Amino acid sequence: MLARLRQTLVVLASTGALLACATLAGIEAPSDGDGATGAEPEDASLVVDGAIQTADGITIAPSALTLPGIRCEEKQSSAITITNNGDAAAPYEVILSQNQTFSLRGATDGIMKGTIDRGGFVLVYVDAIGSAPGPQSIDVVVKVGSSVQQINAKVDVLGGLLAVNPTLVDFGEVQQNRESAVVPIELKNEGNEQISVTGVAGLTSDFALSQATVIIPPNGTATVGATMTVGQASDVVREIQVTPQVGGALCAPAPALTLKGKRVSQDVTVGPLTADLGDFDCGVTPTAQAAIGVTNYSTSNTATYEAKLLSPASRFKIVSGGGGTVPRAANTPTPSKVDIVVGANTIGLPLGELDEDLEVKITAPSEAVATRIVKLHVGAYGAIIEVTPASLGGFRVNETKAFAIKNVGNARTCVSYSDVINNGFFIEPDDVLLPNVNNDLWVQFAAQSRGTYRYDITIARMACPGGSAPICIPPPKASVSATRSR
To answer: Do 72 and 216 fall within a single domain?
Structure first.
């Protein structure tokens, strides 16, 4: 959740001025009201000297939680104190959505709950671990008695984060006694501190990388070249995984790089035999393309080939080079080559990592006739929102209830919840929805006039720090209704 519920009132301690952040929102006027206008809720809360004070006599401190900065993989903690100065024991519940940086110490499924005796207090510890570089933040929901508050927790994380693109280099078929073409590999530091790549672990004589050591500044890149080395033909596909060796603090282990290829004796080769077009959001038509080369090393024979996608409802398309001839090589060191260029269609459902086969048939010369299968890949990402139940009703005045809202897609998104004047409800303004993590949409019935109130809450994607994926299917509306009789 990104912001406090709108019934919160903020006191500026330095000036003593009271700023009303509460806005009674809605569309419909009450069906049988007495004409009174909305006012601040009866349980309005105050933020005084950095602590939240509720009308029930509860103090929550601090009102915002800033943890000391940490480096990657380091830990830091801070506490929220909930004090009961009211007239009776108060039940409490503290909720923190699942995420990679923050957690509630001792919580079960991100929830801590219990009862605070009159005059007592409880300490709730928020733990942070440096798992991603940069500023990290989350809202902690605190429910005490009839009050629902949000405490923003934040921490700055320092360190590097190495990304490798591509993570798979498939040289396909490489003619024996020849070195493959060079494939560039991008190394990117997505962190905020410099890192140095000092080598790779796991490299064998079948493959080579052009550089052993590179220094990469924050948000900088470096490029190394990969080749399959000279060797004899074999029925065995050579495949290894190598891991960059990195100096400097990393917020995640260095990703592995896979190198693979097969040395062959025939004059007509196909490669690569895998093509990853990348990851894209739903609704996007990718511009990325991949080239599958048909190479003819023969100086005496022209080669012919044909290519087709095997899926009847393919997510991919052949852009060019779907069939034809490959001229004979001009000379022994210089083969002829024709590319089959493939792309992806507009990204739709289902979401996920999607694979299909491209069939390439070499039809001439007779000694080179063969069929090769090229594996095509694209990632489809986005958010799909579910809300249960479809409606909530039967509120008491000032009662808070919650819808269960869940992103069943595979990408993080941020959403806003509609709220308009005089609908009789206070509605939580917005949320960060991680994939397959349960969240709550809080609603309080706060009508100040007699009548029956109904409102349909619209859920919409919004921009937010850290990125917000598109919602692939229009989200459902959440309906609320309640009656104030006096």
So the answer is: no
Which of 342, 365, 381 is where one domain is finished? Answer: 381
88: which residues sit within 8 A by CB, 6+ positions away? 118
The whole-angstrom separation of Cα 228 and Cα 232 is 12
Asked whether residue 249 is assigned to any structural domain, the reply reads: yes
- Residue 182 Cα distances to 230, 278, 338, 403, 430, angstroms: 13, 20, 17, 55, 49
- The pair of three-digit structure tokens given for residue 287, joined into one six-digit string: 């511009």
**Are residues 392 and 350 both part of a single domain?**
no
Percent of the chain residues past pLDDT 90, beyond the cut: 71
pLDDT band at residue 7 under the 50/70/90 scheme = very low
Indicate the helix (H) or strand (E) that contains 260: strand 257-264
Residue with the bigger pLDDT between 393 and 7: it is: 393
**Total count of domains within the chain:** 3
Q: What is the pTM of this model?
A: 0.72
User: pLDDT tens across 385-420, in order?
Assistant: 999 999 999 999 989 899 999 999 999 999 999 988
How far is the C-alpha of 456 from the C-alpha of 424, rounded, in Å? 12
Rounded Cα distance, 121 and 45, in Å: 18
- Looking at the fold, whether 375 and 389 belong to one and the same domain comes out as no
Residue 175 and residue 152 in one domain? no
What is the predicted pLDDT for the residue at 472? 97
Please tell me the distance from the alpha carbon of residue 257 to that of residue 330, in angstroms, as a whole number. Answer: 35
In a domain, 29, yes or no: no
DSSP string, 446-460: ---SSEEEEEEEPEE
3-state secondary structure of 200: strand
Q: How far apart are the first and last CA of the chain?
A: 33
* Residues listed for the chain: 486
Q: What span, in angstroms and rounded, lies between the C-alpha atoms of 156 and 151?
A: 17
Over the stretch 422-476, which tens digit does the pLDDT of each residue have? 789 989 888 889 899 888 898 999 898 999 999 999 999 999 877 899 999 999 9
Q: What is the pLDDT of residue 249?
A: 81
Q: Which of 354, 381, 408 is the last residue of a domain?
A: 381
Q: Give CA–CA dist 221/324, Å, rounded.
A: 39
CATH of the domain at 150: 2.60.40.10
**Whole-number Cα distances in Å, 463 to 37, 150, 350, 433:** 33, 20, 24, 12
Question: Within a domain: residue 311?
Answer: yes
Contacts with 282 (C-beta within 8 Å, 6 or more apart), sequence order: 347, 348, 349, 351, 380, 381, 382, 470, 472
240 and 364 belong to one structural domain: yes
Q: Which structural domain range is residue 447 located in?
A: 383-486
47 and 141 assigned to the same domain? yes
